[in-house]
Design brief:
With 214 residues, the protein is α+β, with helices and mostly antiparallel strands. 19% of the residues lie in helices and 38% in strands. It has one domain. β3 and β4 form a beta hairpin. The longest helix has 23 residues, at 190-212.
Length: 214
């Protein structure tokens, strides 16, 4: 189908067309040295296929596909994608073996220190990345992508930009992120939030079973 701006059609469930957030258990590693207690290395993205409502999504990590300029120049580390909870900064970011990797450093304020201790102690292990996509390649079922690396059906992000890295507590769904757009800062409260979380966790198990059977 070639490169196109956006692969999504209107979601029949009335939700946003695209949730540009991905979760991964990143293997956060503290950097060695007495002066590095606030610095950690982690992975924030990969080419693992993600099942969205519109199909399977793949973030292409080939040369020129991932634009790291935003992270390199002004990248921040958030807690649960909350722009009001800045934990620190991205010191550097790079592409290594089809994975986005970064060195982050926590700030000195009390809130950041609380999260840093939980990361250092292994309580918090999850990382999620917020990103935007400028160009996609749609690959039909049974067909190969233009570079021959992927088999359809899938949508491949050929031009995409990581915007921020988040330390996350309990991701509602590691397949589709936290279930909201990057721009959205609204959180559902009360029983509706509990029901939404339950529905997402059920979907996690269904997606994992589906991926295991492929």
């Amino acid at each position: 189908m070639g490169i196109r701006k956006c692969p999504m059609k209107k979601n029949p469930q009335g939700e946003n067309d695209f949730h540009p957030i991905r979760f991964m258990e990143a293997g956060i590693r503290a950097l060695e040295g007495d002066e590095n207690e606030k610095r950690f290395e982690l992975s924030f993205s990969s080419e693992e296929p993600y099942t969205r409502w519109y199909g399977v999504e793949i973030l292409d990590h080939s040369e020129g596909c991932m634009d790291l300029s935003r992270l390199q120049s002004m990248g921040v580390v958030l807690f649960n994608h909350n722009t009001n909870k800045v934990l620190g900064k991205v010191e550097k970011a790079w592409n290594e073996e089809q994975r986005g990797k970064a060195v982050i450093s926590f700030d000195d304020d009390d809130e950041a220190e609380v999260i840093r201790k939980k990361v250092s102690g292994g309580t918090l292990k999850g990382v999620s990345v917020g990103y935007s996509v400028d160009a996609w390649e749609e690959v039909a079922a049974g067909k190969k992508s233009s570079d021959g690396r992927f088999t359809g059906p899938c949508y491949i992000a050929k031009k995409w930009t990581p915007l921020e890295i988040s330390i996350v507590s309990v991701p509602a769904d590691p397949t589709v992120g936290v279930g909201r757009t990057y721009e959205s800062e609204k959180h559902t409260e009360g029983k509706s939030a509990e029901l939404s979380l339950l529905e997402r966790m059920i979907q996690v198990n269904e997606n994992r079973i589906s991926l295991q059977n492929h």
